[in-house]
């Protein structure tokens, strides 16, 4: 397989060896949404929004009909870790190949039903067109008829860069509203009594914790708890002084 420009061979992402089918990556839902399955994690970089754009571009589907699941171990392919721009270079490429293969399979089914050549057909906003004229079919109707449990790499035909309309466009981030409003956290854990937590990185991959001084940790926590109490009392006293000054009609003196 070569890239859309025909200049070099496309190297399939490693995850496609274990998840080779179109349906491993793209599914058409009964409620007329399209579910993109990605093994990548949204850590605030907007990668799932970008991957969704890639799928919408290859399918010629409306963005508002697209939804994406990221790193759901019960549902999505195992793509390993999320780092170093691999979300787009590998995760995005896997979805591009699978979505383009889905489009080819669906157009082949439409061509069979319409008794025409697949080359005569196109897709616009999820509707199938024949020589630019609307047909009775859309992607969801065809997905109910076509076999998408087919090898993605065999049918993949990604678009050329100049054929893409959604990639590169500025879309609202899928995660931003919840991220700004506190809708979810990666580390939203607050066990009773914990004042501070951190990852203790071992010096080597095979290192194991041998021992730790629990008494020292407890003493440290007591010291911090005492410091918090003193700080809290100091703040209360300061608020009390300011309140008394306001009651007496005096302004706090400025220092310096």
TrEMBL record:
It comes from the Bacteria. GO terms for molecular function: oxidoreductase activity. Residues 223-256 are annotated as: Disordered. InterPro entries: AldOxase/xan_DH_MoCoBD2 (IPR046867), AldOxase/xan_DH_Mopterin-bd_sf (IPR037165), N-heterocyclic_Hydroxylase (IPR052516). Residues 24-152 form the Aldehyde oxidase/xanthine dehydrogenase second molybdopterin binding domain. PANTHER family: ALDEHYDE DEHYDROGENASE, BLL3820 PROTEIN. This is Molybdopterin-binding domain of aldehyde dehydrogenase. It comes from Rubrimonas cliftonensis.
């Amino acid at each position: 397989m070569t890239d859309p420009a025909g200049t070099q061979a496309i190297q399939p992402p490693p995850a496609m060896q274990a998840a080779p089918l179109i349906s491993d990556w793209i599914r058409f839902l009964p409620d007329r949404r399209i579910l993109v399955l990605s093994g990548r994690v949204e850590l605030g970089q907007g990668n799932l929004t970008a991957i969704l754009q890639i799928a919408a571009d290859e399918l010629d589907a409306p963005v508002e009909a697209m939804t994406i699941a990221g790193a759901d171990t019960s549902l999505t392919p195992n793509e390993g870790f999320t780092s170093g721009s691999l979300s787009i270079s590998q995760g995005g490429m896997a979805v591009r190949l699978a979505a383009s293969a889905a489009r080819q399979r669906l157009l082949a089914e439409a061509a069979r039903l319409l008794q025409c050549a697949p080359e005569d057909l196109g897709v616009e906003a999820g509707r199938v067109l024949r020589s630019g004229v609307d047909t009775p079919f859309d992607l969801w109707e065809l997905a109910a008829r076509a076999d998408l449990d087919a090898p993605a790499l065999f049918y993949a035909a990604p678009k050329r860069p100049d054929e893409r309309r959604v990639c590169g466009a500025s879309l609202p981030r899928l995660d931003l509203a919840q991220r700004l409003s506190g809708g979810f956290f990666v580390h939203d854990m607050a066990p009773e009594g914990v004042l501070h937590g951190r990852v203790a990185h071992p010096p080597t991959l095979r290192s194991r914790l041998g021992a730790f001084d629990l008494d020292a940790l407890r003493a440290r926590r007591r010291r911090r708890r005492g410091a918090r109490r003193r700080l809290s009392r100091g703040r209360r006293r300061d608020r009390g002084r300011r309140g008394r000054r306001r009651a007496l009609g005096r302004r706090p003196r400025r220092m310096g």
